[in-house]
Write a structure and sequence with these properties.
- The protein is α/β, with parallel strands linked by helices and 473 residues long.
- It folds into two domains: 110 residues, Pantoate--beta-alanine Ligase, Chain: A,domain 2, CATH 3.30.1300; 231 residues, no CATH class.
- It contains five helices and 27 strands.
- An eight-stranded parallel β-barrel has the order 13-15-18-21-23-22-19-16. A four-stranded antiparallel β-sheet has the order 1-2-3-27.
- Helix 2 crosses helix 3.
- The longest helix has 48 residues.
Length: 473
C-alpha cells in the first residue's frame, strides 16, 4: 500500500507533458463547441435561405394583388407554386408554406417551415432544434383601391390599348389593363391622354408625347378573361326577323333572333323593348341621324358579319338588363361569333386579309367584306360601313348612354367619334380583345356602380389597387 501511495505522489508531482494531458481532457469540449458553432452557422444559413424564398413569394403574390382581388384559395395555390419554383437546388427537405390575406385584403402573410440538416447534428441532439421557420409580409401600397373598367385581352398584340392623335380615355375611378406581353402593350400617341386610377400592362407602356394622369404599372400578371365561362342564352333558334331595315318613322323592336342584320338609318326612331336580341350573320348597325333607345336590353352577336356598328350622328341610349341570364351584359360576342375574312394583328386592320390572299385593287373590298345587301337605297352605304368585317366600331357622336358591360373577346373595337362616348352612363365596362381609339374621341368610363340597378357581372366587380408592393413587419 505504501508503495502505491508513493507512486501516486510521484505522478501528482510530475510536470512533464501537462499541456498534452490538459488538451486531451479538453478535446471533447473543444470539438463539441466547434461542431455546435458549425451547426449553428448551418442553421442560420438555412433560416436565411428560407426567409429569402418567403420574401420573394410574398412579393410575387402582392404584385398580383395590385391587379386582382386576392382569393384565399388562389393565394395559397400561388404560394405553393412560387416556393416550389424557387426553393434552392439540392435542398434536402421541402418547405411547408401557408399564405393568408390580411390587412383588409391589401397584404399577404406567408409563413414557412423547413426541417434542417446540420453537419454534426448537435443542434438537433442537444438544443432540440429540428427545423427553421420564417414569416414574410408584403403590402400593396401606392394607390387607392379601384375597379377594372377596361381590359384588353389580347396577349400577343402590339398596342392592346392604342390611343391615336388627340384621343382620350377618362376613367378617374377605375383601372385600365392590357394583357399584351409586347413592350408596347399600351400606346399613347402625341396629343392623346389618359386619366385613370391605374394603367397596368403585362408588357410596357409607350408614351409618345401624350399625357398620362395615372399610376403606371408594367410587368403585371395576366388578368384572365372573367367572362370566359359565363353561360350564354340560346343563339341557334329559328330566325324571328330577317334583314330588318328601318329608314324613317318610329318603330318598336322586340327581343328575338335577327338574321342577316338590323340596319337603322336616316331619321328612324327605334325603341328596343327589354330582353335579349340575337344578331346572327349580320350587324347591329345604326347610322346617320337615327335614334335607338332601350332599357334592359342585351345584344348578342353570333355567326359571321355580326358586328356592333354605331355611326355618324346616331343617338344611342341603351342599358343592360338588371336580372336574368344576361344581367349586366349590354353587348357581347358569343362563342358562336366568327371573325370576318378581314383579319388584323398588331394594330393593322384594312380591306386586305393578312396573308390570306393577294391584295385586291385599291379601294375595292374583298368579296366577303361587302356585308349583307339591303335594299338598293342603302346597299352602297352598308357596303362602305361594313368593309372591315373584323372590326366593331363606335363612330357615333351621340353614343351617350351605354350602361353595362361590352364584351368583345375576339374582335377589334374601334372608337373614332368626335364627341364623348358613354359619358352619361352610370358605368361602362369594356372587356375586348383590342381597343383602338382614333382621332379625338373621349371615351368616358364611369364607375358609379351604385348609380344603376344594372349589375356588374361576376368577375368584373373585383377591386384592384395599389401600384407598389413592399415587405413589411
Amino acid at each position: 500500500m505504501s508503495r502505491l501511495l508513493g507512486i501516486l505522489s510521484t505522478f501528482l508531482a510530475a510536470r512533464q507533458g501537462g499541456t498534452a494531458i490538459l488538451f486531451a481532457i479538453a478535446l471533447p469540449a473543444i470539438v463539441g463547441v466547434g461542431g455546435l458553432a458549425t451547426d449553428y452557422s448551418a442553421t442560420s444559413t438555412s433560416r436565411g435561405r428560407l426567409q429569402a424564398v418567403l420574401d420573394s413569394t410574398a412579393l410575387s403574390i402582392a404584385r398580383e394583388m395590385t391587379v386582382a382581388n386576392g382569393v384565399q384559395q388562389r393565394v395559397q395555390q400561388l404560394a405553393e407554386q412560387y416556393v416550389a419554383a424557387n426553393i434552392p437546388a439540392n435542398t434536402p427537405y421541402p418547405i411547408v408554406v401557408s399564405a393568408s390575406i390580411v390587412e383588409n385584403n391589401l397584404a399577404v402573410k406567408v409563413t414557412g417551415q423547413q426541417q434542417i440538416a446540420t453537419p454534426f447534428g448537435l443542434m438537433e441532439r442537444f438544443a432540440g432544434i429540428t427545423s427553421v421557420s420564417a414569416v414574410a409580409l408584403a403590402r400593396v401600397t401606392g394607390g387607392t383601391v379601384a375597379k377594372v373598367c377596361m381590359l384588353a385581352l389580347g396577349e400577343a398584340l402590339n398596342g392592346g390599348i392604342f390611343l391615336h392623335n388627340g384621343s382620350a380615355v377618362t376613367a378617374p375611378e377605375c383601372s385600365m389593363y392590357s394583357n399584351s406581353t409586347d413592350k408596347n402593350a399600351v400606346i399613347i400617341q402625341k396629343g392623346s391622354r389618359i386619366k385613370s386610377s391605374m394603367i397596368c400592362a403585362r408588357g410596357g407602356v409607350k408614351n409618345l408625347a401624350g399625357l398620362i394622369d395615372a399610376t403606371v404599372v408594367s410587368d403585371c400578371p395576366v388578368l384572365k378573361d372573367p367572362l370566359a365561362l359565363k353561360a350564354e342564352p340560346p343563339t341557334t333558334g329559328a330566325c324571328d326577323y330577317n334583314l330588318t331595315i328601318v329608314l324613317a318613322g318610329t318603330k318598336t323592336l322586340n327581343p328575338g333572333t335577327y338574321c342577316n342584320g338590323a340596319y337603322i338609318f336616316g331619321s328612324a326612331r327605334v325603341k328596343m323593348n327589354p330582353g335579349i336580341y340575337v344578331f346572327r350573320n349580320g350587324p347591329f348597325l345604326v347610322a346617320q341621324n337615327a335614334e335607338v333607345t332601350g332599357v334592359g336590353v342585351s345584344i348578342l352577336l353570333t355567326g359571321k358579319f355580326s358586328m356592333l356598328r354605331l355611326h355618324d350622328n346616331s343617338l344611342i341610349n341603351l342599358s343592360a338588363p338588371s336580372s336574368g341570364a344576361a344581367a349586366g351584359m349590354l353587348v357581347w360576342e358569343t362563342r358562336g361569333w366568327l371573325p370576318g375574312s378581314n383579319s388584323w394583328k398588331n394594330g393593322g386592320c384594312g380591306s386586305v386579309p393578312s396573308g390570306v390572299r393577294p391584295p385586291t385593287p385599291p379601294g375595292t373590298p374583298p368579296p366577303a367584306d361587302v356585308g349583307p345587301t339591303g335594299c338598293a337605297s342603302v346597299q352602297a352605304h352598308v357596303a362602305r360601313l361594313m368593309k372591315k368585317t373584323n372590326e366593331h366600331q363606335i363612330n357615333s357622336d351621340r353614343a351617350k348612354v351605354l350602361t353595362g358591360t361590352i364584351y368583345l373577346p375576339r374582335g377589334l373595337l374601334l372608337i373614332d367619334s368626335r364627341q364623348p362616348v358613354a359619358d352619361q352612363s352610370p358605368f361602362t365596362v369594356f372587356v375586348v380583345n383590342k381597343l383602338d381609339i382614333f382621332d379625338g374621341p373621349n371615351l368616358v368610363l364611369n364607375a358609379n356602380y351604385s348609380g344603376s340597378t344594372v349589375p356588374v357581372p361576376a368577375g368584373l366587380n373585383a377591386a384592384v389597387g395599389g401600384s407598389q408592393v413592399r415587405l413589411g413587419q
